[in-house]
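Form 12-C: Joint structure prediction
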Amino acid sequence: MKADPAGVLTGTHFLDGDQACCEGALAAGCRFAAGYPITPSTEIVERFAQRAPQVGGMFIQMEDELAASIAIQGAVWAGAKAFTVTSGPGFSLMMEHIGFAAMTETPCVVVDVQRGGPSTGLPTLPGQGDIMQARWGSHGDYEIIALVPSSPQECFELTLDAFNLAERYRVPALVLMDECVGHMTEKVVIPPAQEIEIVPRRYTARPPADYQPFEPGPDGVPEMVRAGDGYRIHVTGMTHDQRGYPEVSAEAQQRLVERLVAKIRGHAERIARVEETWTQDADIIVVAYGITARVALRGVEMARERGVAAGLLRPVVVWPFPEKRVRELAARARAFVVVEMNYGQVALEVERVVAGRAPTVLVPHAGGTVHPPEEILAAILAQAPAREVAR
Amino acid sequence: MTARTDAVAANPVEAFLRSDRMPHIWCPGCGIGTTVNCFARALLQAKLNLDRVVVVSGIGCTGRVAGYLELDSFHTTHGRAIPFATGLKLANPELTVVVYSGDGDLVGIGGNHFIHAARRNVDLKVICVNNFTYGMTGGQVAPTTPLGALSTTTPYGCFEQPFNLPQLAESSGAVYVARWTSYHVRQLTHAFGEALRKKGFSFIEILSPCPTLYERRNRLGDGLEMMKYFKEQSLVRHGAPTKELGLTFQGPIAVGKFVDRERPTFLETLNQQLARTLEAQYAGCAGEHVRD
Amino acid sequence: MDAEPTAPPGAGQPVEKTRRVRGVVYINGLRCKGCGFCIAFCPPKVLEFSSEFNPLGYHPPHLVRPEGCTGCDLCGLYCPDFAIYAVMIKNEPEDTRPPAPPAEGAPP
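Section 2 - Result
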């Protein structure tokens, strides 16, 4: 299905990442947003509040992030595509509802424009400390999808993709921006609506008598209905059976959690996405994402200028983690250098997947500003063969 | 004769229940089932298109109501039934959205959402079964526990002032405010009907027995004893100023309809404002185009 | 099939001809949890606890004075377990209460 032209601002624009993210949501068909003001994400919903009424949508500013993150799910069950946006402290408050969306298989999008943490931290300055929280922040076992844009253009594209992935797999899809990407203004090209592919909601064609709301399809994903369609469904955050009725038993828990996990893990390689620069002949694989990938690329360039075969692996989708590609590279790489604006989150994943075949070195940063490229260069050079560095 | 027997052979509320889930989990003498019974009868009388009636609950004993009603029903997270319901209603204004939950859920953990939805006058029918305690978790002190009452977390008696819920609802902006008890079945059924017809944030508080966790701890007997207390100590005071409606431990109870007023709903003010400001650029009534 | 209401105990007993029977009560003994609301709040007081146990271990009500039932259905409104209700009989000659559906789960 193609995008509804009403929401697509086709053309070449000069937008910051927050604005581009909003345009991505509108292009995806999102017509309902709920949010609570928090720096540095607020500009996304400010723009949505301005644009939505002109394209048949609406924004509601809720009383807190708990409300915003569940109001969107109510809207989804009424038939809307919906998202909320936030940053660090608000993201923490939304965790329970990411779990609720995972449990009830409610397709929705949550954008987190990361700032320095913990707690109030650095409201106006960047961080990348929410990567693991995005993956594990709600209690219990579940899977989500998370995309990490590193430019305003990608803020548009990946927000759009997040809506499509959320619908395809009926999961919460997260867009993990950072303050730099959110507030950086660049050229953003928005294609014509007919060139934008939209994944529609997977509504059932079955009549109510043969429909069970949580009966998995062949890919593990159940078909959906809307409230008001006459199916008289029950949806609960409790462990439930295929009818949606609560069932408090180890067997029901096993069946449900196994499916919620498998529907993503079973498609992980289709969902995972990386961008690679000079990795083909690289001895040293630098792993970086978001704004940090752009700084890391400079570090890699400087290493190349010194004759060190370094390359950049940038996860575009960070969850599910691109295990297959990292494993392939681990077979021949001399070392992995993970550069991130936190004290080691994606580095843990890289280390797990590399599994001792090469050293994994972390170049941490507490946030507030980006890494100096020289620091990245130094970390690369420290892993390079002595003869290369000498040259 | 046989035909007539068949016609009456089904309990009139049965059509509103998920019969395959009965018997329900509520204790003997719990009043929640009585309120559901009255609600089902109100639906029967309201002659609404039941495909468009949605029930949203939070967590707790009353939070289980959604799961027993044969309607589109959502059992959400603790305290968040109202914001979920807000999203539902705004994205599809044709739905009649009922929030059915307990005192701890709606005005304890969910208190912030309660006051803001009332302030906005979102068109929700909010039903609060108030049993003075957190039942599902074992009888802890609630924002509604009367002063002096025992609970597992106030073992020497409650020392917190409870909410006066009708006053809270009125001052926050609710357009319909009533209080009944699970003893007042006919009046309650009537009140449900009024709330179902009323446009805007409607609130019904229902005092209800919790024999297992509130009465037993406070040596008040069983559910029936509490029902008798409701019968004996309730005084109908329609239109009474809500500031006079505070409750005390086993004291007198004012019941009745206290507020029934008109205020524009959230969607009405939103649409009016946008239409006025954006004029031709306004793409239409918010909520009508939000669905895909 | 506990959804099926069951016969009131006492159904089929001879009815006093001089008293017009105005209501009939249906009791689902399988669902009853014995709270006693229906018994306590029945205006003509036609119900009492049965001495028998139902499968849940409670004593459901039974109709002890069928001729007194007005079919007001307050029992039905009060019942928290959806286990009882009453129906008013309109324009019926005396002693022709509808035959009750087959008993299920009701105390014998």
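Section 3 - Comments
The CA atoms of residues 147 and 158 of chain B lie 5 Å apart. Confidence is low (pLDDT under 50) at residues 1-8 of chain B.
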